[in-house]
Each structure stands twice: as structure tokens, then as C-alpha cells.
Design goal:
Layout (H helix, E strand, L loop, with lengths): L34 E7 L2 E6 L2 E5 L5 E6 L11 H12 L5 E2 L8 H9 L3 E2 L6 H7 L3 H10 L2 H12 L9 H35 L1
Parallel strand pairs: 5-6
Antiparallel strand pairs: 1-2, 3-4
Amino acid sequence: MPDAIIIPFELPLPQVLPTIDNAEKILSLYEPDLHVIVRRKAGAEVEFGNKLLLGENSQGVIIDWDLIQGLPPADSKLLPGSVGRMKQGYGPQLKAATTDRGFDSEDNRAILGSEGIYNGMCPRSVPELECRSRSWKFKRLQRRRSHTEGRVGIVKNAFLEGRMLSTGFAHRELRVTWTVRVRNLWVLARMQRAAAAAAERQAA
């Protein structure tokens, strides 16, 4: 039998590429306002586009929205602007605010306290969450917030058809504005039908 032929070789070592800041990344040659959005969710570690903030009342009507053109800030940085817009638009009608734990921060807790708005934000601290969960009002607000994820999916998939094909940030912003209005009309129509049906049952 012939002797075995041994051919020495070396595996190339992986090259460590330099980290590029998000502000310097070019995601599109045609859409300069698209950004990397870190999601940290299963199947979607990062996404690309514009961050969209939606705020709705207890009846499911969207009362605040903001499509962010620049680099997407942390969720905790979005609450002051949202509270300011709603205060300007609705006056002292805002009595409580509930969010997921991404919005919780010492500054935001102070803002809600100074405005006399009940803090329904999910705290980042587990012991604090356990403590606050003893409150019926906090639990009710968080239970209501848990449905928001599904409503965001409806806005994205049913009204925006899964993704926006609008070119340019101004057109995307306009698309979101009209989507919110159409979706709110849909919600109000459902509320009106439900009220009419309840009145008929009561009269029967």
C-alpha cells in the first residue's frame, strides 16, 4: 500500500473587523434616513428603518404618534416628548401613562410626578415590579398595555401592509399619519356599532 500523503495547511484566522458607528453606516444609497434599530427580540435582533412611537388611550384610539427621522433614541428618551405633545393637544386630560420597562427611568418618573400623571410604567427592577404589582390600578394598566403589541401588529400588517414602500422620509411620515387616521376611524366605527348593539339589547 502506498504511504499516506500528508499535506500541511493552515486555517486562516478570522479577521477582527473594526466596529462602525451606526451614524457612519450607509444602509441605502437612496434613503439616507434609514437607520439600524436594535430590537433584541427572537428572530429580530436588529431591524432597519425608522422608529415609530405609538400611544393610544384606553379605548384603543391612537392619540400620539411620532415617526423618528434621525438616529433612533432609547425608548426612555421618547416619553417626555410624547407627554408634551399629549398635554398640548389634550390639556389636563392625561391622568395615567403606562409603558413597558424600556421607558422606565428616574427622569421619566420625575416628569410624570411633576405633571400629576399616574406612573403606570413597568419598572426595570424586579423587586419594584413585585411591589407595584400589589396595586390594582397598576395591574389594570399593565394588563391593558399587554394588548398594545397586538394592536401595533394590526397597524403594521393590516393598515401598512407589512412594510412601507414610500420613498423619502416625508412620504413615509405622511403615510403613517393617514394610516393612524384611517385606523382611528375604524376603531370609532367599531365602538359606535358596539354601542348601538348594546342599546338594542337593552331595549329588547
